[in-house]
Amino acid sequence: MSKNNYVVGFPRIGEQRELKKVLEEFWAKKCSYKEVKKVASELKKRHWNYQKEAGIEYISSNDFSLYDNVLDTSVMLGAIPKRFRNLKDEELYFAMARGNKEATACEMTKWFNTNYHYIVPELSLEDEYILDASKVIEEYLEAKELGIKTKINLVGPITYLGLSKRVDGGDCYELLSKILPLYEKLLVKINELDSDILVQFDEPIFVKDLDPTVYSLIKYTYDKLSINTKVAVVTYFEHSNEATNILVHTPVWAIGLDFVHGKENLESLETISKSAKKLIVGVVDGRNIWKNDFENSLKLLEDITKVVNKDDILVGASCSLLHVPFTLKYEEKQNIEIKNWLSYAVEKLDEISLISKKFFAQEYDKNSFLENFKANESRKTSKLIHSEEVKNRVKNLNSLEREGVYEQRIKLQKELLGYENLATTTIGSFPQTPEVRLARSGFKKGLISEEEYLKEMRAYIDDCVEFQEQCGLEVFVHGEPERNDMVEYFGEQLNGYGFSQNGWVQSYGSRCVKPPFIYGDISRAKPMTVEWISYAQSKTQKIMKGMLTGPVTILNWSFVRDDKPRSEVSKQIAVSLSDEVDDLQKAGIKIIQVDEAAFKEGYPLRDSKIKEYESWAVRDFKICVSKAKKETQIHTHMCYSEFNDIIKTIEAMDADVITIETARSGNELLKIFKKVGYKQEVGPGVYDIHSPRVPSVKEIKTQIKLLLEVLPKEQLWINPDCGLKTRKWKETKEALVNMVEAVNQVREELS
Ligand code: GLN
Ligand code: ZN
């Protein structure tokens, strides 16, 4: 019996991060490549079996990867940058991903609005591309041997080109005529393997606002690719209505759409129904960790059948399950009530299966349905989630603006704080030594007493203060030794925040992150940073900056509850943080930095939704600092350099000082600040902290002078371009000493 359900893709790192572990051993030359392949095979087998046992009809091969699927596609197409062409096989593959002694790695960047990073293809018109179908074919056969007939996943050619860069300049889409024939050849080979194999092309780029010329490629491409092959084109993370309207006029067999993050896809139902194509309905959220609400999903499916023939529907997840953790099996310590609201990849398979069974009136487990209903009901009322106090406070909030307008504030602050032009500071963290990490984890595990822990942390802060005094920096930081991570640290202290034991999600290559999750109304139980900062301030006459992570960054780096709009959750965080700002100020802290490292990451994929995001993101930053008196200077820090599109938004946040990451671009990227007449003070990083290299005094001076060509000295701060926690002390000290010296020399020359 046909089950009519569909899984776009499955995570691969392994529920115990087996792939991570074996890869890292291999890279450290502690095991052979054969061992890597063995673990990979075991994982593939396990993942296929999970899907089979759950009763999934369309299971993928080639969704597995030893590093990244886009990199796999480059290798498949023979798109190898020149500097790697002396290598082959796994050596080539991992060199492109990670670099080697002779060649720098390919660039890596975020996969749409997720925290997954792919390896950016480097293409050129003069390169010859040749097909290498081995991985695709081998994986298909591997599954077949286990008795599973898979669909074959491929990154679609238009998305592949859209994510590439041209090393010879020019437009990547120009290369379609070079790579499309390779895809066609591949399909011939696939069709030789078996009859009726389904090939899935992932085309998430279709959810962006594309140039008309790109839309014009869709029909041409998919006419060719689906003429002799059964093809499904899947999009996700947003609606793809423009592309859907074109795809219906090609011979593709199915179209997969995300109905969780792209509700507007409903507008395409009519044309899909006319075309009699199969529709893969993404109803189970592949981006979040909450249990599906079966009632809602079935209602959505029933609504869709008012337009689309029921027989043409396949039930699935909104996107690949790559973006959620593996299984709840290892969440042994999780609060039972909370655990009952969660669903990771393996559990989502059961959800997809159950929903499809019920929807297609097949036999299903009634008890599971009842359990699902109960779990969702309990979320509506649980005391763990709902706090009237928080809701009322947030609802009744109306003061957004802080005291005084910028011009008036900065004048006062300059007088009171007495810092010079080109004032020097750092972004917050200092190198995290093994001792600090050990003390922190020891304290967490109860291995050392609070007293001992405090002593260790304070000793570290003392060292930081002493170094900053010696070095001659002007505005100090305490160094953040108590923080493992800038979001986790706050999450752990906020009510409504949860942590998983084993909720790892692949970020890039072997790297995984374990995002915290927001399950309930957010409030602050007690001050979170005041003791640390006050202690640090007590050790110096200089100004000690208070250090907080901003509401939008906390939100963007967590799994967020799905029973409330993100904007409301963000507002709750902002309100909690506003109390922290006030407490710091009352404790005598004169400068407070609110980091918004992930502000830009949260931008929507569709231009039409940007305004709304910006309006609440700015609102919440402003709420967070709304209690700051005009004497209290508010800094913010952002971890990127391209401000062209968002400069007006940044200005509207109304921070007194912003430090940014422009060290690698000379003064080019700063020019936008001048162009728009940006008023507030700016600290464009003068050296790159991502490398251990120590910049010389001369280099930093050159950099400062470049900055002075764009903005006046009265408006500039001098600092590294991000926090220093991943650096070693030796290079950090040398670099900062050089930075201060460079500033002194420039000041002298200027006077
Ligand atoms: N204050 C943080 C630090 O210095 C900021 C880090 C970041 O923006 N990524 O570590
Ligand atoms: Zn940063």
Overview of this protein structure:
- It is built from 27 helices and 25 strands.
- It has 751 residues and is α/β, with parallel strands linked by helices.
- It folds into 2 domains: 377 residues, TIM Barrel; 346 residues, TIM Barrel.
- The strands form 7 sheets. An 8-stranded parallel sheet has the order 1-12-11-10-9-8-6-2. A 6-stranded parallel sheet has the order 14-19-21-22-23-24. A 3-stranded mixed sheet has the order 15-18-20.
- Helix 1 packs antiparallel against helix 2, helix 11 crosses helix 13 and helix 26 crosses helix 27.
- The longest helix is centred in the N-terminal third of the chain and has 22 residues.
Quaternary status: single chain
Write the CATH architecture name of the largest domain.
Alpha-Beta Barrel
Strand fraction equals 5-15%
Unreliable residue runs: none
CATH class of the largest domain: Alpha Beta
Strand order of the largest sheet: 1-12-11-10-9-8-6-2
Whole-Å distance between the termini? 85 Å
In angstroms, what is the radius of gyration? Answer: 27 Å
SS-based structural class?
alpha/beta
Helix content: 40-55%
CATH topology of the largest domain: TIM Barrel
Supply the number of structural domains: 2
Bound molecules: glutamine, zinc ion
